[in-house]
Amino acid sequence: MTHTIHAEPLTSLCRDIFAAAGTPDDIAAIVAESLVMTNLFGHDSHGVLRVKQYITMIRSGMIQPRQRPQVGKRFGATAMVSGGYGFGQVGARFAADLARKLGGEYGIAAVSLGQTTHIGRLGEYTAQIAAEGLIGIGFTSGTMYRGWVTPYGGRERVFGTNPMSFAVPCLAGETLLLDFATAGVAHGKIVLARAKEKPAPSGMMLDRHGNPTTDAQLLDKGAVLLPMGLHKGSGLAMMMELIPTLLAGHRPIIAPDFHFGNPTLLLALSPEAFDDSTDFAAQVDALKSRVKAVRPAAGFEEVLLPGEPEARAYARRVCAGIPLPDAVWADLRELAKELGVNL
Ligand code: NAD
């Protein structure tokens, strides 16, 4: 069963819950907006489902709600940002803004974000860079507490779900956005399936004996997630684990207590710095049109572009509202009651 609610009241509710838990109003607004936007784009695994988790983390001291990001080291077009274990969404927005500015100045920029809690939807920040006419690339070591994903051929949790994202500017201020976990499926989607008492998608999990399973309830009983794309996804997951983590200054990489946070590396590339032609966005649109014109294979109705499923979910949900599983709605109501927030 679901409870449908429009984006605006949902954003206010989440903002008020964070504020009542000691978050400054501007930070509470950024985090609420980011989570609800993620629901609007159809990725419920990274939307307001997280409010309860974040409040628990504030209460245990894992999220410092008043902390604001700061630039640590700067060298040319590179910078290290520390989130100070404040909200990851705030740190990642700050890092993306810095990458965008440095990319505009130097033609290319790389900004790492360390000491960060969960940043949510990585594509939000690469799109923020692309909105200014630059190419945005993001790598995240997507581990909050411990790894979930086994290397190809194994059955032990080593990697986070480690997303990567590419955002490319198009004509008319639009963005071509690719944004995915290097696990076959984001961990949050199994959590969501578990909350809805539904099976996990097939081919994404092994039970603790190393046999394929779709039982989402096994998540806390030793199951492991599989990387996407067999050995190739496993290799990408390893790179996403290494590169942002080490460039954000986290060490040692395999200590048992290492896995806290969401170290992220954001790159910004200015097309004009590489090539004097001014038709970058037009060329992107030409390829998009070519891909859209491809005849569908058996079993498909059309070829979709990266970002199209999200744009369609947005168009639907912005009008019809966001369907929340009853369990998620019950958690929000419970939190509102506990914190004295008016529903
Ligand atoms: P997904 O598998 O639903 O889709 C990922 C990408 O594939 C999107 O760019 C989408 O537009 C594209 N896509 C989907 N269907 C398509 C189709 N039929 N044709 C063409 N393109 C298609 O996403 P996911 O891997 O479950 O990730 C979901 C979200 O979770 C992402 O926003 C990611 O950043 C986030 N995430 C965050 C963390 C973290 O630690 N912060 C970890 C994992 C995932």
- Using the alpha-carbon principal axes, give the shape: globular
Sheet/helix structural class: alpha+beta
Strand order in space, largest sheet: 2-3-4-11-5-6-7
Q: Number of helical segments?
A: 11
Q: What Rg is obtained from the alpha carbons, in whole angstroms?
A: 20 Å
Helix/strand layout:
Blueprint: E1 2-5, H1 7-20, H2 25-40, H3 50-60, E2 70-75, E3 78-82, H4 88-106, E4 108-114, H5 123-130, E5 135-140, E6 163-169, E7 175-181, H6 187-195, E8 205-206, E9 212-213, E10 224-225, H7 230-247, E11 264-269, H8 271-274, H9 280-292, H10 308-320, E12 322-325, H11 326-339
Parallel strand pairs: 3-4
Antiparallel strand pairs: 1-12, 2-3, 4-11, 5-6, 5-11, 6-7, 8-9, 8-10
Helix pairs in contact: 1-2, 1-11, 4-5
The chain binds nicotinamide-adenine-dinucleotide.
Structure write-up:
This protein is of the alpha+beta class. 41% of the residues lie in helices and 17% in strands. The chain is built from 11 helices and 12 strands. Strand 3, helix 4 and strand 4 form a beta-alpha-beta unit. It is globular and about 55 Å long.
